[in-house]
């Protein structure tokens, strides 16, 4: 698609955020986590205005560019004119999280088969892998209330999530948050891997659970460290990978 650049209409800080968020959308597509044009990844723009970037509704994730991202306010009203529509219903979950978590810059939500499958299991995430120990260190659950477009669901979702960085939306999918786009992406990579591994393990023989003391130790380590899973370390390599595939997300 031929989308006009808006680089000269925004600050350098916002432009870099747009490039990183567009890269995140492309990476989600590349790893097979997208659901046609559904689900969203949002990013808070630094500043007192409480503005956010979100995908133009109707574009595939592998079509999204820095300039096509739509700037909206807390009510999902456009702040900068855009030829693309936005999906206010899709922003309900994101706006709820952003409103409750000032520490969060990025909210990433997926509907992958593995994620939805584990979200439908009564046991939820089991301590079956190293990946699962990182998820269990900061995991919350929110029960399904139907398609998430009602404002009255927000306080319940906020209460369920609390300060967790991983949220399993029962019968719905996965959600991660991060202090940066890189952190939210790496958390989702770990969350998705956890779910895929769990389903594969359940299809085999008797399961061996990680020692609860080890899970508790990881939880304590994750609580005291400030770097999360270390998204900043892996992000440059992901950008290089994406650049080898297609650099058009930067436009």
Automatic annotation (TrEMBL):
<dbReference type="InterPro" id="IPR036409">
    <property type="entry name" value="Aldolase_II/adducin_N_sf"/>
</dbReference>
<comment type="similarity">
    <text>Belongs to the aldolase class II family.</text>
</comment>
<protein>
    <submittedName>
        <fullName>Class II aldolase/adducin family protein</fullName>
    </submittedName>
</protein>
<feature type="domain" description="Class II aldolase/adducin N-terminal">
    <location>
        <begin position="19"/>
        <end position="199"/>
    </location>
</feature>
<dbReference type="InterPro" id="IPR001303">
    <property type="entry name" value="Aldolase_II/adducin_N"/>
</dbReference>
<dbReference type="InterPro" id="IPR051017">
    <property type="entry name" value="Aldolase-II_Adducin_sf"/>
</dbReference>
<dbReference type="Pfam" id="PF00596">
    <property type="entry name" value="Aldolase_II"/>
</dbReference>
């Amino acid at each position: 698609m031929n989308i006009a650049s808006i680089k000269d209409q925004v600050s350098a800080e916002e432009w870099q955020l747009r490039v990183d968020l567009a890269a995140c959308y492309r990476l989600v597509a590349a790893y097979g986590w997208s659901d046609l044009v559904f689900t969203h990844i949002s990013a808070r723009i630094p500043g007192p205005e409480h503005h956010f970037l979100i995908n133009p509704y109707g574009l595939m994730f592998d079509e999204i560019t820095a300039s096509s991202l739509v700037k909206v306010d807390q009510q999902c009203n456009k702040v900068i004119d855009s030829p693309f529509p936005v999906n206010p219903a899709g922003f309900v979950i994101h706006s709820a999280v952003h409103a409750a978590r000032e520490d969060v810059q990025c909210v990433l939500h997926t509907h992958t088969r593995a994620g939805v499958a584990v979200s439908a299991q009564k046991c939820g995430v089991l301590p079956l892998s190293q990946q699962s120990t990182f998820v269990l260190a900061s995991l919350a659950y929110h029960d399904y209330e139907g398609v998430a477009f009602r404002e009255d669901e927000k306080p319940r979702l906020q209460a369920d999530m609390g300060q967790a960085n991983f949220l399993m939306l029962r019968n719905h999918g996965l959600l991660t948050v991060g202090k940066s786009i890189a952190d939210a992406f790496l958390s989702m990579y770990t969350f998705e891997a956890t779910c895929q591994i769990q389903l594969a393990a359940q299809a085999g023989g008797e399961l061996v659970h990680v020692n609860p003391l080890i899970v508790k130790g990881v939880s304590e380590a994750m609580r005291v460290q400030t770097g999360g899973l270390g998204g900043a370390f892996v992000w440059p390599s992901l950008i290089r990978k994406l650049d080898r595939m297609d650099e058009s997300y930067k436009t």
